[in-house]
Specification:
alpha/beta, four-stranded antiparallel sheet, about 35% helix, about 20% strand, globular
């Protein structure tokens, strides 16, 4: 399957995301306040920040899971008013249907969009080949390893050809070796498909390894504290973690995250929470 895109002419490509002065509250809790972010088509952006800073809320707002008024979230010039096939979501927990085979899980999206069963299954087989799981099409999720289940989740998110891929700590539950392999695989697939990626993680190393740009958020209510261009070559070299540029970017991100974590702790202690 050929899924390549020429990068560079971003004005002509789908996948531009604009978040404008977004504020989100859940009852008395302010999750986000005046959050602003623009992502160019085909760009890979990671969100970092202390626990509870609203990273997943940003992702859910772009996905359309969080109601947002007044065109605060716009994808390709259209206000987000709910979930759509132009945005694919990969969750930390694999969220596969346990009673469906791997093939049926991936075919589910096209079927919901009106594809015939034969066409949906054809597309599902193409994307299972794409993530290297063709041999497991007739297996059930419970028989697969965590890394394999996550690859099924990625195939399911990609099968509808989303312009924007939203990933909420997708490798957080994996062991270190599997996580590294999944990161490498993701970068290879992203380079081939050219989708815009918005990726949430707690891991600074992971963010810097994957992203074109790292956005560090404040403690809740979340705002943008740092918009950091990752000045590392692509494809990432084997010694990327030892490069001085990597070390300096990591130091900068960690300093801000620690400051915000301490600030949040002090506020909670002062309020008796």
């Amino acid at each position: 399957m050929q899924l390549s895109l020429e990068r560079g002419r971003t004005a002509l490509l789908p996948g531009r995301v604009e978040i404008r002065d977004l504020s989100v509250r859940f009852g008395a809790h302010a999750a986000l306040e005046d959050f602003c972010l623009a992502i160019e088509p085909g760009e890979f952006v990671c969100l970092l920040g202390p626990s509870g800073c609203g990273k997943s809320t940003v992702l859910n707002a772009v996905a359309g899971f969080v109601p947002v008024a007044d065109a605060k979230v716009v994808v390709d010039g259209k206000a987000v008013k709910g979930p759509g096939a132009d945005r694919g979501m990969v969750f930390q927990q694999y969220s596969l249907f346990p009673w469906k085979t791997v093939l049926e899980n991936v075919a589910f999206g096209p079927r919901m969009l009106g594809a015939r069963r034969s066409e949906a299954r054809r597309k599902a087989r193409e994307y299972l080949e794409f993530v290297g799981l063709s041999a497991f099409a007739d297996k059930y999720p419970a028989t697969l390893s965590g890394g394999m289940q996550q690859r099924v989740g990625i195939a399911r998110a990609l099968v509808n050809h989303p312009a924007v891929l939203l990933m909420d700590e997708p490798f957080g539950a994996l062991d270190a070796q599997t996580r590294g392999l999944m990161q490498e695989n993701l970068l290879r697939r992203w380079d081939e498909i050219g989708a815009t990626v918005l990726f949430v993680t707690h891991d600074v190393d992971e963010a810097l390894y994957l992203a074109d740009r790292v956005v560090v958020m404040s403690a809740a209510p979340g705002r943008v504290l740092l918009n950091l261009e990752v000045e590392l070559p692509r494809p990432r070299p084997d010694d990327v973690f030892a490069l001085p540029t990597f070390a300096e970017a990591k130091r900068q991100c960690l300093r801000l995250i620690r400051q915000e974590s301490q600030r949040a702790f002090d506020i909670q202690r002062g309020s008796g929470q």
